[in-house]
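Thanks for the sequence, V.! I ran Sir2 family NAD-dependent protein deacetylase right away. Repeating your input here for the record:
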Amino acid sequence: MKAEAPTPPHFEVVADAAKRGRIAVFLGAGVNYAQQPAGRSWRPEAEYLPTGRELSHYLAQASGFPSQLEVPECAGVPIPQNGVAAGAGNSCPIRHDFVKSVRGVLEADLAQVCQHIQTSARGKLNLPLELQRIFERDYAPTLVHDVLAKLPSKSERNRGSIFITTNYDTVMESALAAAGEPFDVVYYRAPTVANPVWLYHWRNAHEYYEARRLKTPAGVMRDETPITALAEYDGLPIGSDQQRGYPSIEPEDKARTLVVKIHGTVSPDGFESSSFVISQNDYIQFLRTVSTKTPFPTTLEDRLKEVHFLFVGYGLGDWNILAICQNLWARRGVPNLYNWAIQKDPSQADIDRWESASDGSATIDLFNQDGAEYAKQLNQYL
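Predicted structure:
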């Protein structure tokens, strides 16, 4: 596999798929980093969302994560032939391989840091509250969000657009509300002994986000339903194909867009109602709860087996979600469906990962392009 820039035929296929309601867009964390200031240095008060590494570093410092070790300044000087770094006067002999390993610990992944907070630093930092503070703010949509929010207006009346995301923020919801597009939200909430339900359907969520955009969300009532039986639930307004069992909609109504937040979301009801698949234990619970065979209501799963998949800003870090996608692709009933991934300057390791993610039932075409530039070109074809 070699990552090339997308060509006009690609954008033509995507635009046509959007018109026919045959595309599911998978949003990764990378969609939030388009058009951000050069030399950015994220802080909790910043007007943009953090990367996973930035969030990990901030939470590690705030919680006293034990891997925050002091690395002597001489660790950054060139390494001489004998493999020993020497500071002024050769007073700081540190082997290069040791320095490299220490820096690797300093860049501990987000799941590891959050696991530490949940198990060892709960008294020092309330993780759900901290995540609520970070992700509940009204961040401005990027160009990628704004262009993607146009897709529903291009689709046929009886085919709602589908956005699937592992992001906790609500930027895509805000972009859809700003575009005047009605949408529902389906989201994962970690189950408890008292409440074993893990999937919820929030109807007409756009009403809340439109009110929030106008600074008047307090009076909006939330219409939310727990999905207790995936096979029987028919409340998703994604289309009206009676032959395939989709719920019917009235002729004057248009199927609504669906935003599926499979790793949880920040809740407008406060951090007690929010859910974040973010620590090692959270991922284990997610895997134990959500079957990779049937993580969605059957009506949604049937639709996903008939659409193209477009990954934007997704770095293959959440392999459990990719396993869900592969299971869907293996059971597709429509020929000539594509899977595309957009990633700027992918490394050979990235290319190899995407190639290995392709299996016998489906391939993934990786395109080398910045998300914002991709959105600009796609907008011309829409």
